[in-house]
C-alpha cells in the first residue's frame, strides 16, 4: 500500500471515529418529556424504571439523588422517594440471605414496587433469569437462578428451596413443569390447565411432600 493511500485510509478512519464520538456525545438515552407540557408521557409510570436502569445519570440531572432521600428532588422537584422507600438494591444485596431469602423467595407483592418474589426479579434480570436489562442470575449461580441441586440445606439457616413462598410456583414452572430439571418427578399427570403449584403434581411434588 502506498504511503498516500494509507494516510487517506487513516484520515477516513479518524473522520469516522470522530463522527461516531460526536454522535455518541449527543445521542444516548434521553428520558422522554413533552415539549409543550413539560411532562413525561402518560405510560411513563410503567416504563420509567427501564430507562433508569439503562442510564441512571439522565434521571439524576432533573430528579437529584436516587440513593439518598435527603438529596433527592432536583430541579423537577419530584423525588423518587415520594413513591419508593429505596430505588437501588441495598448495599449488602449480594448476601444470599438478602437477595435470596429476603427477596426472590418472598411471596410476590401486589405492589409492583416491592422487591419480593421471583417474578419481580424477572422484570430486570430477564424472563428466564438469563439477563434482561440487568445481569444474568447465572453470572453467579451458573446453572439455575438459584443454588445448584439438590438445593436442600441441612438446617433452616442453610440455603434451602423449602424457604420459598408457594406464590412463586408459576415462575418455577418455567423450568420445572412435570418435573423438568429435577430428580423428583410427579407420579400422575394433573388435568390440563391446572395452575402450577408445589404439591399438586404440576411441578415436582404430589400432595405427599416426601416425594
Ligand atoms: C429534563 C428533566 C427530566 C428528566 C431528564 C427526567 N425527568 Fe422525570 N420528571 C420531570 C418533571 C418536570 C416531572 C413532573 C412532571 C411529570 O409528572 O411528568 C417528572 C416526573 C417524573 C415521575 C413522576 C410521574 C408521575 O406520574 O407522577 C417519574 C416516575 C419520573 N419523573 C421518572 C424519571 C426517570 C426514571 C427519569 C430518567 C430515565 C426521569 N424521570 C428523567 C423531569 C425530568
Ligand atoms: C409517582 C410515583 C413514582 C415516582 C415519583 C417514581 N416511581 Fe419508580 N415506580 C413506581 C411504580 C408504580 C413502579 C412499578 C412499575 C411497574 O412495575 O409497572 C415503579 C418501579 C420502579 C423501579 C423498578 C423496581 C421496583 O421497585 O419495582 C425502579 C428502579 C424505579 N421505579 C425507579 C425510579 C426512579 C429512579 C425514580 C425517580 C427518578 C422513580 N422511580 C420515581 C412509581 C414511582
Ligand atoms: C429494576 C430492575 C431490577 C430488579 C427488579 C431487580 N434487579 Fe437485581 N440488579 C439490577 C441492576 C441494575 C443490578 C446491577 C447491575 C447488573 O448486575 O446488571 C442488579 C444486581 C443484582 C445482584 C448483584 C448484586 C451485587 O452486589 O453483585 C443480585 C444478586 C441481584 N441483582 C438480585 C436480584 C433479585 C434476587 C431480584 C428480585 C428479588 C432483583 N435483583 C430485582 C436491577 C434489578
Ligand atoms: C430458569 C430456569 C429455572 C427456574 C425459573 C427455576 N429453576 Fe430450579 N433448577 C433449574 C435447573 C437447571 C436445575 C438443575 C441445577 C443443577 O443441575 O444443579 C434446578 C434445580 C432445582 C432443584 C434441585 C432439584 C434436584 O434434582 O435436586 C430444586 C429444589 C429447584 N430447582 C427448585 C426451584 C424452585 C422452588 C423454583 C421457583 C422458585 C425454581 N427452582 C426455579 C432451573 C430453574
Ligand atoms: C453476585 C453473585 C450472585 C448473583 C448475581 C445472584 N446470586 Fe443468588 N446467591 C448467591 C450466593 C453466593 C448464594 C448462596 C449459595 C448457596 O448457598 O449455595 C445465593 C443464594 C440464592 C438463593 C437461595 C437463598 C436461600 O437462603 O436459600 C436464591 C433463591 C437466589 N440466590 C436467587 C437469585 C436470583 C433470582 C438471582 C438473579 C435475579 C441471583 N440469585 C443472583 C450469589 C448470587
Helix content: 25-40%
**Could you state the order of secondary-structure elements as H and E?**
HHHHHHH
By secondary-structure content and strand pairing, the structural class works out as mainly alpha
What is the residue-averaged pLDDT? Answer: 86
Total number of strands: 0
Name the bound molecules: heme C
Low-confidence stretches: 1-27
Portion in beta strands: under 5%
- Broad shape: elongated
Radius of gyration: 24 Å
- Profile the largest sheet: none
- Report the total helices: 7
N-to-C span = 73 Å
Protein architecture, described:
Helix content is 34%, strand content 0%. It has 211 residues and is mainly α. Among the domains are: 49-88, no CATH class; 96-146, no CATH class; 165-211, no CATH class. The radius of gyration is 24 Å and the shape is elongated. It binds heme C (5 copies).
Give a nutshell description of this structure.
This protein is mainly alpha-helical.
Keywords:
elongated; 0% strand; single chain; disordered N terminus; 34% helix; 211 residues; mainly alpha
SSE blueprint and pairings:
Blueprint lengths: L2 H24 L17 H11 L2 H7 L32 H9 L13 H8 L12 H4 L27 H8 L35
One heme C (HEC) binds next to α2 and α3.
